[in-house]
Amino acid sequence: MPNAKFLEEYQLYRKFDFPIKRDTKLLPISLNEFPKVNLNMYCPNCNNIRTFKFNYKYIHKKEKNLFIKNIDNHFQIKFDFSKTQRPSFPVLEENDIVNLNYICASCEDYYRFFAIKMGKGLKTIEKVGQFPAWDISIEKNLKKILKGYSEYYKKGKTCESQSYGIGAFAYYRRIIEDIIGELLELIPDLMNGEELEKYRVALEEVRKTNNTTNKIALVKDLLPPILKPEQFNPLKTIHDVLSTGIHGKTDEQCLEDAESIRTSLIFLVDAILSRKKGQQEYTESMKKILEKRRKKINKNEN
Asked: Residue 240's Cα: distance from chain center in Å?
């Protein structure tokens, strides 16, 4: 059944298992069995991440025998009133489109819509439409690093939004290959002592090679703890994905790899730049404090 992750993050046409457990296969699946899950998504009215509460759901079928009811003069809910189905609990069939509506719990004015198609044997579902569309904007910190590669990133996310995994993977790989050197040069700012010396030695070797996977291999095990939350190593993830390439892989497999690259890249950039900004702000703050103390001491001495 659809959950928050599926509705919030899954791309259009990407299959999602629909594991409704039933006592018997003879009973049909009804629209009423879709869960009422809340979402955490961006609301432009509130200009922040907000909880979106479930508002209503309805099923769109190909049959002509439909009853149409207006809700708040804004939306139309369609129910099948054929003799074989009860209008309050429409039965789901292959290729049916289930429409889900959500409203921001904060402003109660911004809506999100999802069109969910039932797959073969009702074993899978996929999003075939949503409003607003899947977000292809560039994260603020990432934009600073991408610079001229921003268009590649947007094209990669566009491919990802349509489940074109091979295309998305190709764009993200191109970005990694072109900016990895600059990204690796920023990591020493987060290190000190013995770990910094080891990284600097490896970085000298990095500068001697043009192969992306070799560059990452030289330093992936030398990351500071701040860049490895719960032992998750973003550089290792990128290295493993790039090492296997896309030869012989399906769109679905490449889609997962593309998502891994994008997620790891965003984390690395955010962690590096945010930490660096925090250090700079701390340094500037301490300079101001020490300067005030120095002036006070000089004033007292005079």
From this structure: 20
| C-alpha R_g of the chain | 26
CA angle, 15 as apex, 171 and 249 as ends, to 5°? 45
Query: Element (H or E) spanning 253, and its range?
Result: helix 251-301
CA-closest candidate to residue 103, choices 50, 48, 32, 47: 50
| Long-range CB pairs of 186-189, under 8 A, 24+ apart, other chains included | 186/272, 186/273, 186/276, 187/219, 187/223, 187/224, 187/227, 187/272, 189/272, 189/275, 189/276, 189/279
Nearest to 259, CA basis, from 171, 184, 139: 171
Omega before residue 132 within 30° of 0, cis: yes
Q: Which CATH architecture has domain 140-282?
A: Up-down Bundle (1.20)
pLDDT for 229 beyond 70: yes
What mean pLDDT value characterizes the chain? Answer: 80
Asked whether the beta carbons of 163 and 12 are under 8 A apart, the reply is yes
Tokens representing 221 are 């095990």
- Quote the CA–CA distance of 174 and 152 in Å, as a whole number: 8
Domain range annotation of the chain: 4-131, 140-282
Q: Is the pLDDT of residue 197 over 60?
A: yes
Question: Tokens standing for 252?
Answer: 């679905």
Q: Nearest-CA neighbor of 122 among 4, 3, 15, 6?
A: 15
Look at residue 79 in the predicted model and tell me its pLDDT. 44
Identify whether the C-beta of residue 242 lies closer than 8 Å to the C-beta of residue 201.
Answer: no
Q: Is 254 left (phi over 0), alpha (psi -120 to 50) or beta?
A: alpha
Helix (H) or strand (E) holding 97: strand 97-104
Q: Which of 231, 187, 233, 232 is nearest to 206 (CA)?
A: 187
Give the per-residue pLDDT at 142: 82
